[in-house]
Amino acid sequence: MVMKDIELKVIIELLKNSHRSDREVARAIGVSQPTLSRTREKLEKRGMIKEYTIIPDYLQLGFTLMSITFTKMKGPLSKEILDDLKKRTRITMSEYPSAMILGNTGMGCNADYVAIAFHRDYGEYSEFMRDIKEFPNVNINETKSFIVDLLEPQFQPLSFSYLAGYLAKAK
Questions:
Q1: Contact 39, 73 (CB under 8 A)
Q2: Residue 30: which residues within 8 A CB-CB, separation 6 or more?
Q3: N or C: which end of the chain has fewer CB within 10 A?
Q4: From first to last of its 171 residues, what are the pLDDT tens digits of the chain?
């Protein structure tokens, strides 16, 4: 589906700051507030906008580590096994919430799966890794993690504003 220019402008402005009112966003892109509201609603219905959120200060929330964990399975995952794994993961996450913000299959780094999570300390990270390795009926061959010390200064902090700049430049 081809995105209209106004739709892309709305996405870009909301990536910069989704806290603004429809009136403020409409003013920023040069359309009326009703046009902006209708466009935003269409984008939400089509699934282009999945949620509105914030990027918190992780340290002030008590997190000192972020991990990016790569997992290699012992064999290929069939569609049935993958669907079951996704279902069980959602159930586990609802019963035992963690600070995992992304979990997905993929390719690269000799892995089949990636998880990104925040941890209060190394002990919490170790518990997270144990939970991954002991997840029922999953044949894990290997796990590797890249651990980010959030106490160290970030040279490129997580921000969707940078994505907005890229989209604006690329259009």
A1: no
A2: none
A3: N
A4: 567 899 999 999 999 999 999 999 999 999 999 999 999 999 999 999 999 999 999 999 999 999 999 999 887 777 887 788 778 777 777 776 778 898 888 889 999 899 999 999 999 999 889 888 887 667 888 999 999 999 999 888 888 999 999 999 986
Residue 118: name the closest of 61, 171, 76 by CA.
61
13-22: long-range contacts at Cβ-Cβ below 8 A with a sequence spacing of 24 or more?
Answer: 13/164, 14/40, 14/49, 14/52, 15/160, 15/161, 15/163, 15/164, 15/167, 16/160, 16/161, 16/164, 17/161, 18/52, 18/53, 19/54
Tokens 């000192």 appear where? Answer: 64
